[in-house]
Amino acid sequence: MPNRLKEPHSKFYKRQTKHGERWQGIVMYYDTETGKRRQTAQTFATKSEAEKWARRVEMEFRDNPKRKPPTDQTVKEFLSDWLETMNPPRTRPTTWRGYQQKLQYVIKALGDRPLRAITTQDIQQLYGRLGSQLGAQSIVHVHRVFRQALQAAEDWDLLPKNPARKVTSPKVPRPDLRVPTAEEAQRFMLAAESHRLRALWIWLALNGTRMGEALGTRWDDVDWERRTVRIQQNLTGVGRQRQLGPVKSRDGFRIIELSNDMMAALKEHQATQEQERLVAESAWQETGLIFVTRKGAWLDPRNVHRDFKRMLAQAELPSKIRPHDMRHFMATYWLSSGVPLKVVAARLGHSDEGFTIRVYGHVQTGQQRTAVDAMDAQLLKKSINNPSTLTGTTEPDRDTS
């Protein structure tokens, strides 16, 4: 049986350099692959800084014997360590998988390079090469994750500075929203009158929630007396990757009010679900969710999307309309009807009203047009009958002296 590796240990001492008196921290550790003793060191201006660094790095080697110091660690090894720190529950499972997928492009190109040798130019050139494989938006996503990881390397004293900080990522123009018109929404609802998920289509159009929020809402979240529902759970992923979890942000936790038609649709849907429960008998899966399969299981968003497309075809509507566009329809309709921006942002679960303005700025433009026309009617038409009101002047008093 091989001898157990010795524990890492640290020390610090004063040394004379060409810049004057300095303090050096040293951590001795043992390579788990070779069993050989190695060391990593760093110089500081004060004794307390050297001691603090040495103690911290020693504990990091004790917690993770396979850890590599910045002089040895490759980009691939560091990103693997960073992803471990970002594991659920710190991040959502779908978010973590997204990080993992995006960083594969970095690992493939730069994975064998020493972390300390990566430069801003290396990263900029990588994004240039990725242009032949990915769209601008995808490269922006890669950049955001890689920059976040390298910022952690700087925070952990593995790098003196984050080389991705000054990298220029591609500019992605915001796509134009395809918001269904009121006439299109009515045609869709008529086509969906007899559909099993009619209540879901009404939900998306009237409540403005995200699809995952709708599919994650439980019957217990509905307050029948107050006509409200708590939005606090989200269904993410597709197929076997589906998972229930909290909504996207703190502001995503919200209570929204329901219309009379929405309440009627929910009661009808609840009655239908009770019939399906009786038919399914022992095959029924009790999830407590409002929108489920005929046997009570979680709905797969892919199947919901396919049903939505079938409804579009029946209504002879453009196939490019998405379920998420019903959320845009609600927000646009409310804003164009004069509902305050703050109320709309709260219903949508936006943490920043500025984001709501950026997404639905076209509605604000329409309201400006209405406002200036109203000013014309109220001000200028009156001014024609009384020209003096244009400048706010009156006829001067005559000098009677």
Explain how this protein is built.
The chain is mainly alpha-helical. 47% of the residues lie in helices and 11% in strands. It contains 14 helices and 8 strands. The strands form 3 sheets. It has a 3-stranded antiparallel beta sheet with strand order 1-2-3, with helices on one face. Strands 4-5-8 form a 3-stranded antiparallel beta sheet, with no helix packed on it. Strand 1 and strand 2 form a beta hairpin. Helix 7 packs across helix 11. The longest helix has 25 residues. It is elongated. The termini are far apart. The relative contact order is 0.07. The C terminus is likely disordered.
Map the helices and strands.
Blueprint: E1 9-17, E2 20-30, E3 37-44, H1 47-63, H2 75-85, H3 93-110, H4 120-130, H5 136-155, H6 182-191, H7 198-207, H8 211-215, E4 222-223, E5 228-231, E6 233-236, E7 243-246, E8 254-257, H9 260-280, H10 301-314, H11 324-336, H12 341-348, H13 353-359, H14 361-385
Antiparallel strand pairs: 1-2, 2-3, 4-5, 5-8, 6-7
Helix pairs in contact: 2-3, 3-5, 7-9, 7-11, 11-12
Kindly report the average pLDDT value: 83
User: Percent range for helical residues?
Assistant: 40-55%
Compute the CA-based radius of gyration.
Answer: 31 Å
Q: Tell me, what's the shape?
A: elongated
Beta fraction of the residues?
5-15%
**Count of β-strands:** 8
Largest sheet: 3 strands, antiparallel
Reading the helices and strands in chain order gives EEEHHHHHHHHEEEEEHHHHHH
Identify low-pLDDT runs: 389-401
Describe the strand arrangement of the main beta sheet, using strand numbers: 1-2-3
Structural class: mainly alpha
- End-to-end CA span: 121 Å
Give the count of helical stretches.
14
